[in-house]
Specification:
The structure holds 2 protein chains of 2 kinds.
Chain A (H helix, E strand, L loop, with lengths): L11 H5 L3 H39 L6 H26 L7 H18 L4 H25 L4 H19 L22 H9 L1 E2 L3 E2 H19 L1 H11 L1 H6 L4 H27 L8 H13 L11 H20 L7 H17 L11 H10 L6
Antiparallel strand pairs in A: 1-2
Helix pairs in contact in A: 2-13, 2-14, 3-8, 3-11, 3-12, 3-13, 4-5, 4-6, 4-11, 4-12, 5-6, 5-11, 7-11, 8-9, 9-11, 12-13, 12-14
Chain B lengths: L2 E11 L2 E12 L3 E6 L5 H8 L7 E6 L2 E3 L4 H7 L1 E4 L13 H5 L1 H4 L10 H13 L16 H14 L4 E5 L7 H16 L3 E5 L3 H7 L2 E6 L2 E7 L8 H9 L5 H9 L9 H4 L6 E8 L8 E6 L3 E5 L6 H9 L8 E4 L2 E2 L5 H6 L2 E4 L3 H4 L7 H6 L7 E2 L2 E2 L1 H14 L16 H15 L3 E5 L7 H17 L3 E6 L2 H7 L2 E6 L2 E7 L4 H20 L7
Parallel strand pairs in B: 3-8, 3-9, 6-7, 7-8, 13-20, 13-21, 16-19, 19-20
Antiparallel strand pairs in B: 1-2, 1-4, 4-5, 9-10, 11-12, 11-14, 14-15, 17-18, 21-22
Helix pairs in contact in B: 10-18, 17-18
Classes of the chains: A mainly alpha, B alpha/beta.
C-alpha cells in the first residue's frame, strides 16, 4: 500500500532509536490499517467479483453471451441517467428530478411520434430539448433563485411528473390509439426508435448498449479528463476555493444541471424505444436506481467522491445482482429491497471503514506517471 | 490542589503515529503552556486530555490515581473544561448570549423541564455576575465580536467550576489588547487554584503568562521549561525546541533556492523593472463608510500591511484583487486599469491571491498537491481542453522540489501534509507560475515556525531576484516587519503609519496601532478588567 503520511518523515535513525514496544505496536497498527484500507478500496469490487463467480458456477446460463447483453441492456438507461446525477453531484449538488425528467421526455417523444407523426429526427430533437429545458429550470432555480439543490429538484420532480400526465391527458400514448377528436393516431414508433430499443448492430450488439458505450466514453472524457470536469469537481469540493482560483462558479453549476437534464433526455429516448409507447410514469423507478448507482460510486476503489467509473460500476453491480436473483426466481418485487441493501453496504464501506481517503489523486493516471518516473506503480 | 497528568501518552491514527509517548503535567494554581509547530501533536494531546480521544498507549492520572474518560462529558464531570480555538464550534448561532451560556446547564440535572426566557436570563446574569463578565444576556451571539464570543465560551467554562481549564490558541483572533484582558482572567483563575493550560503559536505570550511550558515536536515532548523567581521563559529556547536543530530556516535560505535557476522567466517577468508601480489602488475604502485609502506596491519590494483584526486589511486586499466589488476608487495593474472585475480577470493579468483562511478558501480536501498547483491556471496545463497529466505532474514535482515542500510525491493528497506544507503549496504555486504581483492575507496563521521562515524567505527572494511585487497582510506586526521592506499600518480603515522597515519600525508600528487602542477605549469604553 502506498500510504504516505507526514509521519513517514521520521528518519531511519529516529525509528531505530524508538523502544522495541513502539515498533511492534506500529507494525500491528500498520496491519490493521492495511486491512481497513484494503477493504475500503477493494471491498466492493471483491464482493462484486465473488458474486460473479458464484452466479456463474451455480447458473451456467449466467455467463452466456445473451445474458451478458441482457445485463448491459438492463443497466444502460440507469447508467446514462445516473451519469446525469453524477454531474450534479460533481458540483456538490443533487438532481432528484431525473426520474420525472425521463417520464416527461418519454411522453413528449411519444406525442411527437404518435400524435404529430413528426418523424424520428424531430422527435429526437424534441426529446433532447425537453431534457435540456428541465435542466435549465433546475439551473435557474438553484443558481439564480438560490434554492437549495435538493429542494429545488424535488420541486421540479413533482412538476414534471405532473406535466407528463397533463400533456398525455393522463393516459398512455400508444400507436394506433384513438385521439380526443375521435380519429386514430397517425404515427408509429418508427425504425429509429425501434432500433434504439430492440435493434442490434454488428455482432448482435444491442442499440441500447451502443448508446450506453458512447455516453460513458463521452462523459468520462468530459468529467474525468477535461478541464471542464476538473473545474466541476473543484467547485463541488470547495466552492469558495474554486471561486478564489478564478472559476466562474455559477456558470459551471448551471452547466452541470443542464448536462444532467440532457442526459435525462437521452435516457428518456432510450426508454421510449424500449417500451415502444409512452407509458405513464415510466421514468419514476429510475430515480432510486440512479441515486443508488451514483452513491455506490463513492465506495468504488475508496474514492469517496462521485466519479464516472464509479457510477458505471454501481449500475453494473446492481444490474448483476438483480439479474442473478431473477435467475434464481427471486420475485421482481424484491428488487427495491435489494437496491437499498446494496446501497447501504456501499455507504458503510464509504463512511464507516477507514478514516481518511486514499492519499493519491487520480487513480487512473497514477500508475502511468509513476512508471514514467521510474517508480513502481502502487 | 489538583494534579492532572498524562504519562507516556501515545496515539496512533491509522498508519500515522501522532504521539510517541508524551508526558505532561498540569498543576492547580499554575498556568502551563503547550507549544509546538503544526502537526507536532498538540491538538491530539488536548483531545486526549479532555476525553475526546482515548490514548493508544499510556495513562492519565488525577491526583495520583489512574483515570480514563469514556468521553468529553466524563472529563467534564471531573472538572476539565476546554475552550477550542474555533469558538464558533461551541456556540449556537442566532441565539442569545443567555441561551449560549446555559447550554451546559440545559443538559444538567438542575435544569427545569420547561425553560422560559426569564429562567435563561436570570440564570445567565447570575452566572456572569459572579465572574466579572459584563455582557447583555439578551444580545444575539451573531452581534458579538470574536473576542466577546470567546468571553462567552470562557464564562461558561468558568461557571462549571472547572478545576482544569485548557485553552487551544485562545489569542489567535484577538488583538493584543483583547489578549491582555484574557490573560488577566487566566491569572485570576490560576490564583483561584485552577490548573490552566494554554496552547499557542505566539511564544512571546506564552513566556509572559506561563509558569511552565512543554515543547512538543513530532509527537514527542522535546523540552520542558520552568519559570523561576518570576523570570520570563526563554523564547529562543522554545523556538529551538519547536523547530529542531535540523530545520533552522536561515541556513536554508541559500540552499532552498539554489536550484531555482530553472525558473523559466515568463513574458511578464521580462518586462518588469524593480521600482515601478505594480499594483495600485486609488480611493479604495476598506470600510464602506470609512476614509479612502491609496495603496501602491512596487516591483522588487515586499509591502507589509498590518493592523488589528477588523482594521480593514482583508477588505482592502479583497477589493484590490477583485474578490469583493470595489466600494469606490479604482485599481490598476502596471498602469492599466483592471478590466472586468473579478478574481479571474486579476489572475489572467498576473496577480495571485492567497486568501486568509486556508482550509475554508484554498484547500480542496482529497486533492493532490499537483491539482492544487494547477487549478488557478488550469487552461495552461491543457491540450484540446483535456488536462495534460504529464505536464501537470511535472509542475507538481517541480513545486515540491524547488520550494522544499515536505510530504512525498506530488500526487499525495494535501490532507496528508502539515499545515505549513499546505500553505507552502498554496503560496508558491503562484510564484512557480510566474505571477508578477502576489497578494497574501494572513499567510502565516496556522503555520509552524519552520515553514513560516521558509515562506517569508521565498517571498523576499522573489521580490528581490525576480522583481515581483508582494503584498503581505498580517495582524501580527512582528511578522510583517520580519518579511517586508515597507510597512503600512491600517487603523479603523485608514492608513495610520507608512514607512520603510528600519530598526525602530516595530515600535513605530506598535505606537500607531496603540493610538487606536486609546481612541477606542475612550470612545466606547469597552475595555474592562485591565486593572
Amino acid at each position: 500500500m502506498n500510504v504516505q503520511t507526514p509521519e513517514s518523515d521520521t528518519t531511519l535513525e529516529e525509528r531505530s532509536s524508538m523502544p522495541a514496544g513502539i515498533s511492534r505496536e506500529r507494525r500491528h497498527s500498520d496491519r490493521k490499517l492495511m486491512l481497513s484500507q484494503m477493504s475500503l478500496k477493494y471491498g466492493l469490487v471483491s464482493v462484486f467479483l465473488a458474486m460473479m463467480v458464484g452466479f456463474w458456477m451455480l447458473l451456467p446460463a449466467f455467463g452466456s453471451m445473451s445474458n451478458i447483453w441482457v445485463i448491459l441492456e438492463s443497466m444502460a438507461i440507469v447508467v446514462v441517467a445516473a451519469l446525469g446525477v453524477t454531474f450534479s453531484l460533481a458540483v456538490g449538488g443533487w438532481d432528484l428530478s431525473i426520474g420525472s425528467n425521463i417520464s416527461f421526455v418519454v411522453m413528449v417523444g411519444a406525442i411527437f411520434l404518435v400524435e404529430f407523426n413528426s418523424g424520428a429526427v424531430v422527435a429526437l430533437v424534441a426529446c433532447l430539448a425537453t431534457g435540456l429545458l428541465i435542466g435549465g429550470v433546475n439551473a435557474l432555480l438553484i443558481v439564480k433563485g438560490k434554492v437549495p439543490d435538493m429542494i429545488a429538484t424535488l420541486g421540479t420532480m413533482f412538476v414534471f411528473q405532473g406535466l407528463a400526465l397533463v400533456i398525455a391527458g393522463g393516459n398512455n400514448i400508444a400507436p394506433g390509439m384513438t385521439l380526443a377528436n375521435g380519429r386514430t393516431a397517425p404515427g408509429a414508433m418508427g425504425a429509429v426508435f425501434n432500433w434504439i430499443g430492440n435493434g442490434t448492430i454488428g455482432l448482435g450488439i444491442p442499440g441500447l448498449v451502443v448508446i450506453l458505450a458512447a455516453t460513458v466514453v463521452a462523459v468520462f472524457v468530459l468529467l474525468e479528463l477535461s478541464r471542464f470536469g476538473r473545474t466541476m469537481y473543484a467547485l463541488g469540493i470547495n466552492r469558495e476555493a474554486a471561486r478564489l482560483a478564478g472559476v466562474p462558479v455559477n456558470r459551471y453549476r448551471a452547466a452541470a444541471y443542464l448536462l444532467s437534464g440532457l442526459l435525462g433526455g437521452v435516457a428518456g429516448v432510450m426508454l421510449l424505444g424500449l417500451l415502444g409507447n409512452g407509458q405513464v410514469n415510466a421514468g419514476s423507478p429510475y430515480l432510486l436506481e440512479c441515486v443508488a448507482a451514483a452513491l455506490i460510486a463513492y465506495a468504488f476503489l475508496g474514492l469517496k467522491r462521485p466519479s464516472v467509473q464509479g457510477t458505471v460500476f454501481g449500475a453494473l453491480f446492481v444490474s448483476v445482482v438483480i439479474n442473478g436473483l431473477t435467475m434464481f426466481n427471486v420475485p421482481y418485487y424484491a428488487e427495491d429491497t435489494t437496491y437499498g441493501l446494496l446501497l447501504m453496504l456501499a455507504l458503510i464501506l464509504t463512511f464507516s471503514v477507514g478514516g481518511r481517503s486514499q492519499p493519491t489523486g487520480s487513480w487512473l493516471l497514477r500508475g502511468r506517471i509513476a512508471r514514467r518516473r521510474g517508480v513502481p506503480a502502487p | 490542589m489538583v494534579h492532572f497528568a498524562g504519562e507516556g501518552i501515545g496515539k496512533i491514527y491509522g498508519s500515522a503515529e501522532v504521539l510517541h509517548g508524551c508526558s505532561v503535567e498540569l498543576h492547580g494554581g499554575r498556568i502551563t503552556g503547550l507549544v509546538g509547530s503544526n502537526g507536532a501533536g498538540k491538538s491530539t494531546l488536548i483531545r486526549i486530555l479532555c476525553g475526546a480521544e482515548r490514548p493508544s498507549r499510556g495513562r492519565l492520572s488525577w491526583n495520583g490515581n489512574e483515570v480514563s474518560f469514556a468521553g468529553p462529558r466524563d472529563a467534564k464531570r471531573r472538572g476539565i473544561e476546554v475552550v477550542h480555538q474555533n469558538v464558533a464550534l461551541g456556540l449556537l448561532p442566532g441565539r442569545s448570549v443567555a441561551e449560549n451560556l446555559m447550554l451546559d446547564a440545559l443538559a444538567g440535572k438542575q435544569c427545569p423541564v420547561l425553560v422560559s426566557r426569564a429562567w435563561f436570563e436570570s440564570a445567565a446574569s447570575q452566572m456572569l455576575g459572579s465572574h466579572l463578565f459584563s455582557f447583555d444576556p439578551e444580545r444575539s451571539i451573531d452581534d458579538l465580536s470574536v473576542a466577546e464570543r470567546q468571553e462567552v465560551v470562557l464564562a461558561r467554562a468558568i461557571a462549571q467550576q472547572a478545576s482544569v481549564m485548557i485553552l487551544d490558541e485562545p489569542t489567535a483572533s484577538l488583538s493584543e489588547r483583547e489578549a491582555g484582558v484574557l490573560f488577566e482572567r487566566l491569572r485570576h483563575l490560576r490564583d483561584q487554584g485552577v490548573a490552566v493550560m494554554v496552547v499557542s503559536h505566539r511564544l512571546g505570550e506564552v513566556s509572559q503568562i506561563c509558569d511552565s511550558v512543554f515543547v512538543l515536536r513530532d509527537g514527542v515532548v522535546v523540552d520542558r521549561l520552568e519559570a523561576r523567581d518570576g523570570a520570563l521563559l526563554d523564547v529562543g529556547r522554545m523556538a529551538m525546541g519547536i523547530i529542531g536543530e535540523a530545520r533552522v530556516s536561515a541556513a536554508r535560505l541559500g540552499g532552498g533556492f539554489s536550484g531555482s535557476d530553472r525558473t523559466a522567466p515568463t513574458a511578464v517577468e521580462g518586462s518588469t523593472r524593480a521600482g515601478e508601480v505594480a499594483l495600485e489602488g486609488v480611493g479604495i475604502r476598506p470600510h464602506p463608510q470609512g476614509p479612502e485609502v491609496h495603496i501602491s506596491v512596487h516591483y522588487g519590494e515586499v509591502l507589509g500591511l498590518t493592523g488589528l483584526v477588523g482594521a480593514g486589511k482583508t477588505e482592502l486586499l479583497e477589493q484590490l484583487v477583485g474578490v469583493r466589488p470595489l466600494a469606490s476608487g479604482e485599481v490598476s495593474h502596471r498602469g492599466q486599469p483592471l478590466q472586468g472585475s473579478g478574481i479571474a480577470a486579476a489572475i489572467a493579468t498576473g496577480i495571485g491571491f492567497v486568501p486568509e483562511d486556508r482550509t475554508r478558501s484554498a484547500i480542496f480536501p482529497g486533492w493532490s498537491v499537483r491539482r492544487h498547483r494547477t487549478i488557478p491556471f488550469l487552461k495552461r496545463f491543457c491540450r484540446h481542453g483535456l488536462v495534460h497529466a504529464g505536464r501537470e505532474a511535472r509542475a507538481g514535482e517541480d513545486l515540491m522540489d524547488r520550494f522544499d515542500v515536505r510530504g512525498g510525491r506530488s500526487d499525495i493528497a494535501v490532507d496528508f501534509l502539515s499545515g505549513g506544507n499546505q500553505q507552502k503549496v498554496i503560496v508558491t504555486r503562484w510564484l512557480a507560475e510566474g505571477v508578477d504581483v502576489l497578494v497574501l492575507d494572513e499567510p502565516f496563521t496556522g503555520v509552524d515556525i519552520g515553514a513560516r521562515g521558509d515562506i517569508g524567505a521565498q517571498l523576499r527572494w522573489f521580490a528581490r531576484e525576480h522583481s515581483k511585487a508582494i503584498l503581505v497582510a498580517s495582524s501580527d506586526p512582528r511578522e510583517v516587519v520580519e518579511v517586508a521592506d515597507r510597512v503600512m499600518v491600517l487603523v479603523d480603515g485608514r492608513v495610520a503609519w507608512e514607512g520603510p522597515v528600519g530598526d525602530d519600525t516595530l515600535s513605530s508600528v506598535g505606537r500607531a496601532i496603540a493610538s487606536t487602542g486609546d481612541r477606542e477605549a475612550g470612545a466606547t469604553g469597552t475595555v474592562e478588567g485591565e486593572s
